[in-house]
Amino acid sequence: xxxxxxxxxxxxxxxxxxxxxxxxxxxxxxxxxxxxxxxxxxxxxxxxxxxxxxxxxxxxxxxxxxxxxxxxxxxxxxxxxxxxxxxxxxxxxxxxxxxxxxxxxxxxxxxxxxxxxxxxxxxxxxxxxxxxxxxxxxxxxxxxxxxxxxxxxxxxxxxxxxxxxxxxxxxxxxxxxxxxxxxxxxxxxxxxxxxxxxxxxxxxxxxxxxxxxxxxxxxxxxxxxxxxxxxxxxxxxxxxxxxxxxxxxxxxxxxxxxxxxxxxxxxxxxxxxxxxxxxxxxxxxxxxxxxxxxxxxxxxxxxxxxxxxxxxxxxxxxxxxxxxxxxxxxxxxxxxxxxxxxxxxxxxxxxxxxxxxxxxxxxxxxxxxxxxxxxxxxxxxxxxxxxxxxxxxxxxxxxxxxxxxxxxxxxxxxxxxxxxxxxxxxxxxxxxxxxxxxxxxxxxxxxxxxxxxxxxxxxxxxxxxxxxxxxxxxxxx
Length: 477
Description:
This protein is α+β, with helices and mostly antiparallel strands and 477 residues long. It has a single domain, classed as Amidase signature (AS) enzymes (Alpha-Beta Complex), CATH 3.90.1300. 38% of the residues lie in helices and 14% in strands. The strands form four sheets. An eight-stranded mixed sheet has the order 6-8-7-14-15-11-9-10. Helix 8 runs antiparallel to helix 9 and helix 11 packs across helix 14.
């Protein structure tokens, strides 16, 4: 099979070919190397490659019987540059760690490698994952392939761009305030924030922190479900990780029960939304209703999300980066300095209030999902903005108070511990992708994936990626 044909196949098809022995992991690595050479200079998604390490791992895997090579059977995947990979440069997007090479992989990477994943690259991310625009002082900007003058969002921006351009079949990402969902929305791919604990990871600063989670990205819902199957499961070194309950997320996406009653909201009551985005969500809801599902306009009361998230995010940044502020404060970008300093100034009363607000919103959300199976909303409030902007400062005449407030449509869902997926919902008048966020109650990934597959079929956009990077003003095919 020609390399150009191989990179355009769905991940599930490539895994099937790997399992049959029709192609080898080495063939996949060669195809990716050729594709990266052709397009990554235009988008800067995968700045660190580890192809020889990948080939060594592939050869070792190929010595094992086909049936014992794991769910991914030797499929190569990139790992976000916030997550340690043994022997591979891991910078966190920071000049402080520009030459750091971990001696051991994060438990998430070890878990994936046991499932037959072959790590071949690190995907670009903003400094310490802060800010939903992928740029840093080590590697520079990652550009949106739909229009290379635009942002890829973040913080899993490199992963989303790699998928959209055919430099990856599946990709790892992470999400606190939408870092899986935002880049998926901007780049026309699929990204899922699982429930806290669904995907185990090494704990480095807080044992029980649940704001940030790791999760899967792909070009379509079934491919994403395959990766979630490979990522999920308990690990002893992550005390909040969830044991497998035997559910196949891929099987659920393909054939689980359909939703009966679905809510939709243009804004979750917490944020302005660009008209193109709101219109796409309304159209998606109408198409779902036409398919026979009861669809009603509603959302849980998440009005405390702004104050709550700002406090808990600042606390997380202070917990994780306090020491670096003291030793390398002059090398941290100003947004991170602001966040850490805000966290260090928090009072006990402010933290208690935020925790109480989170519990109240969680309780209201649980009650909401007693009536509704799923909730539809925008994944982001805008389409891709100019890459030179550090963040979205204004929407519909409303000026945001800081660099994360524009992410409320995503972080409101983070706070209530719900799984959420972003899938392509259509395009704006500028022919930029719009993402639809599909949310379910806590630990309902199977239902969310089934709903996402239904919505994908109802919307019927077809395979919109991979694409070659497009210069500004180039028309969509």
